[in-house]
Amino acid sequence: MMQRQTNKYILIILLAIPFFGIAQKDFSQKVTPRMRVILDNDYAGDPDGLFQLVQHVLSPSVDIRGIIGSHLKPGDGFDPSNETATHAVQNVNEVLSLLKLDGKFDVYQGSNQGLKDTETPNESAAAKFIVKEAMRTDVDSPLYVVCGGGLSEIANAYLLEPKIAEKITLIWIGGPEYTDIAPPPPGYTSLEYNTAIDIKATQVIFNQSNISLWQVPRNAYRETLVSYAELLTKVKPQGKIGKYLTEKIENVMELTNKYKIYTGETYIMGDNPLVLLTALQSSFEADPSSSFYTLKQAPKINDAGLYEVNHSGRNIRVYHHLDNRLLFEDFYAKLQIANQN
C-alpha cells in the first residue's frame, strides 16, 4: 500500500514538471508588446528601484528600448560617491545577470552630475539615446519614458532636441504633495527626495517643456508598502534574484537600526508604480484604469524645488491612488514564474 502511494506521488510530480518548465515561455508568447518604454532610474540609490527594474524586465507587454542608470544627489546616503550613475549601470547589469537576461537590453549611463543651468544640457549617452528613440519615424507604438529618480536625463534630452516633447509620455515618481489633494506626512521635508536630485532638471520639465507628464507625487508613492513578512515569504524564496532583492532591503534595515532610525515592518516600493502605469494598463481602452488621478495645471518649480502657481501651465496627470493589489500580486507572480525556469 505504501509503495503504491509513493508511486502515485512520484507520478504527480513528474506530470507537473513540464507545466512548470513552460510557464515563462507560455506567459511571454501569449502577450504581445503594445508600447515602447525607456527605464530611467537611480539604480545605485534606494533599492526600491531594483524591484521596479526586475518587475519591468519580466513584463512582456512592454518593449523596453533601453535602461538608463542615472545619478543621485551629491553625498546621498545610499552612495556618497561622485560616480553614482556609473554604479547604477553596474547594478543594472548585476540584476540582468541574476535573471539570466545578460545582453537582452541596451543599458546606458547618464551623467554623474545634474544640470548646471536650465539651458545647457549634459550630452550623456543616455540623453542622446532618448532623443534617438523618440525621433524614430519607423514605428508607431507609443513611447513612455519612466523615471524613478531625478529628471536629469529627460531634461538633457529635451534641451538637446525640444521636438521630443511631442513624441513621448513621461511618468515621474517625484514631487511633494499637492495640498488640495493630500497633506504632507509627519516630519516631512519641504524639498522632496527625487526633486532634490536635480532641481534645475525639474524646472526644465515643468517650467519650459510641454512634455505629456504623469506625476506620482510623494503622497501616492508612499502608498506602495510591502511588509518584511511578505519579502521573507514571497520574494526571498524565489531564487537568486529573490534573495538578492530581499537582502538589499535587509541591508537598509541593518543600517537604519545602527543609527537608531527604526523603520518598522514595512518598506516603500515607491518606484514600482512605473510598472503599474505602463505594463499593467487595462486590456481594452488601454489606460491605468484601476488607479486614480486628477488633471491639474502644471505648477512652476521655483529655485527651492517647491510648487508655485503657473497660470499658463499645461494640464498634467497627478496620481493620488494606486492599485497596490494588482501591482504587488503581479510582482510576486512574475518572480515565481521566472524562478521556475
From TrEMBL:
GO terms for molecular function: purine nucleosidase activity. Keywords: Glycosidase, Hydrolase. Gene3D superfamilies: Ribonucleoside hydrolase-like. Signal peptide: none annotated. GO terms for cellular component: cytosol. Residues 37-284 form the Inosine/uridine-preferring nucleoside hydrolase domain. The keyword Hydrolase applies. One of its GO terms (biological process) is purine nucleoside catabolic process. Pfam families: IU_nuc_hydro (PF01156). This is Inosine-uridine nucleoside N-ribohydrolase.
